[in-house]
Amino acid sequence: MSRISVRGFAVASATAVTTVGAVVGVAAGGEQQSSTDPVEATAADTTLLADIPAGQQAVAQTASLTQQADVQSTAADAEAKKSAEESARKQAAKDAKAKKLAAEKAAAEAKLAKEREEAKKKLEASRSATRDASSFPQQASYTVAEVQAMARQIVPADQFQCFSNIVNHESTWNYRAENPSSGAYGLVQALPGSKMSSVGADWRTNPATQIKWGLNYMNERYHSPCGAWSFWQANNYY
After folding, report:
1. Which residue from 137, 138, 179, 195 has the least number of CB within 10 angstroms?
2. Residue 193, Cα to own-chain centre: how many angstroms?
3. Distance CA 204, CA 141 (A)
4. pLDDT digit string (tens) for 116-144?
């Protein structure tokens, strides 16, 4: 049997020892210990489990184990509570972050939708404000100023400068300009010039027809005259 210190056992079972009759020290016929002596004195005098009678050993061991179990249970409950609170805190933070991201995404999508709608309205307004090529009266000839005035009424205002830049480079606003090598014709140098017949049969002599065809071409291929001008600057053609 191993020699185990029982200071803890003696303290924990002080009540049990007192009830038995304070037998420690009287087993050999000694005087009974005064009931007014501190229990700690008994614990201090008792150093080995073997020195305590068998009955008292059981009482002391039971009291100590119960006490240890209570301490461990309390500690386990505290740890479980702490863990639960930490998990709840982390989940709350995670939920708050997800909610914030969802709100930011919704706001960004709403802003983008609004910008697209405004751009669409602006484009529609600019197009409705322009004149159709067929609305211009036919003339025998046109000056550069007249041709440019027609273009300003057909091309949206925010795209006119880009359109003008291309025409300046392609024909210097000469609606009868023709490239002898390629056959490109007109203000925007359509190749072949007959392509412009899709807008009007008078494509050779009517600047408005050429302007309308050129605008359609730039919108379809480059999304706008400014898109066409950006491409022209990078490649020297469009």
Report:
1. 137
2. 52
3. 11
4. 776 665 555 555 445 666 678 888 999 99
Q: Coil, helix or strand for 185? A: strand
Distance CA 124, CA 120 (A): 6
Beta carbons of 39 and 82 less than 8 angstroms apart: no
**pTM beyond 0.70:** no
For helices 160-171 and 144-154, the axis angle rounded to 10 degrees is 140
HSE, side-chain direction, 13 A CA sphere, residue 168: 10
Q: What letter represents residue 43's amino acid?
A: A
Residue 199, CA distances (Å) to 53, 134, 150, 194 in order: 120, 9, 16, 10
What is the number of other CB atoms lying within 10 angstroms of the CB of residue 67? Answer: 15
Tokens 């009291």 correspond to what residue? 63
- Kindly report, residue by residue over 30-59, the tens digit of the pLDDT: 444 444 555 445 545 554 555 666 667 677
SS3 track for 101-146? HHHHHHHHHHHHHHHHHHHHHHHHHHHHHCCCHHHCCCCCCCCHHH
Tell me which DSSP letter residue 199 carries. Answer: T
Beta-strand ranges (E) seen in the chain are none
